[in-house]
From TrEMBL:
Keywords tagged on the record: Hydrolase, Serine esterase, Signal
UniProt protein name: 4-O-methyl-glucuronoyl methylesterase-like domain-containing protein
GO MF, one annotated term: carboxylic ester hydrolase activity
Residue intervals of the 4-O-methyl-glucuronoyl methylesterase-like domain: 230-379
Annotated Gene3D superfamilies: alpha/beta hydrolase (3.40.50.1820)
Pfam families found in the cross-reference section: GCE_fung (PF22244)
SUPFAM superfamilies linked to this entry: alpha/beta-Hydrolases
Region of interest called Disordered, as start-end residue ranges on this chain: 15-34
Taxonomic placement: Bacteria, Pseudomonadati, Bacteroidota, Sphingobacteriia, Sphingobacteriales
Keyword Signal on entry: yes
Amino acid sequence: MAAIAAPGFVYAQQQAAAQQKPADKTPPSEVAGIPVNYDESKVGTYTLPDPLTKLNGQKVKNAEDWTKNRRPEILNMYYTLQYGKVPGKPKDMSFNVFDKGTPAFGGKAIRKQVTIYLTKDTSDNHKVDVLIYLPAHATKPSALLLNASFSANSNVTDDPGVKHSLMWTPDGKRAPVQGGGRFGKMNIEQFIDAGFGFATLCYTDFEPDTKDGYKYGIRSVYNPSGKFADDEWGAISAWSWGLSRVMDYFETDKDIDAKRVALTGASRLGKTTLWTGARDTRFALIIGSVSGEGGAALSRRNYGETVAHMTAPSRYFYQFATNWSKYSADPSKMPMDGHMLISLMAPRPVLLQTGSTDGWSDPKGEWLAALAAKPVFELFKETGPTTTEWPAAEDESQLLHNEGYFMHNGPHGVLPTDWPRFIQFMKKYL
């Protein structure tokens, strides 16, 4: 089979190239035939739904009332109206730990590699390869960061012992990934040096990130007809469901502290990360990077990307439940918004990381969402933003809160300087 270039790896190349520029390119004034606004004076007025007012009109009384009554209401909104419902844990899932612990990084780490078969079929059809590094001299199970990546595992590190990755081809088969220099490489040792493990996987192992990806990915198992009800899962829920299956494996690994697992991802994987943290509370800490529209940013703000842009037939409608497109003309009719997605993390720590020149993802909209979610964290006596003023780029004053926010000086994506901040956040809360 011929080698192919991984779509996620191309994305990583684009991200790396962008990081060499002082700012993003001039943003488009129109996308998919829909105007794009970058003028704060044209954002419009809006009223956010109150996360602490239940559907019966009563106010949430305390943390117990939130957990038992209001949180399930909001979670159901996202299941049925935005991301789509997902199936439970598959009974026929299995794990193949084919690399049980090999010294890496000069002996400071132990490398593990696991193939998780998502069905009883142990071919390459429905599986995910997970690459794990743990501190070699740990005296107890390690906390770790799980990275939902655009890059294939064999392109994340120079470690020659990493299994060469396969990626989906346009005709629904898997082929070896081409190499690609140093684009997308991770400095994994910084996590080991801080006492944390680091695990990574490529999100398209669960399902290709294309309009017809459902034909080949995990949704084809549960929806073989290719027909989806308006409230059934889109691709983001498929990727999120897959991340929960990785947590299922972590719970079986005696070297991993499954109660201290952080999860991160950027852009569409930032949305996926936040949605996974909302629906699977086993993840102890969430870092959602540049998640923008459909993630942490407020949809009611007419700024940058909008629901209409996301759900346009030529763009990313397939990532969401069909119901979400019904709000494209008027997001104010949604019973929820980005602040309520953030609120579903409470009381667990969540960090929103954005970029100052990333107007498309509306970093200010993410900040305003964090402010609006703060009352939920306060129910649990946890800290949120300590000011209403939008922090400047590189201002770390709002970083180390239970509901944290940090905006780097630069474009869409995760910069090399962001990872040490993630480690700071993990050190405080894990």
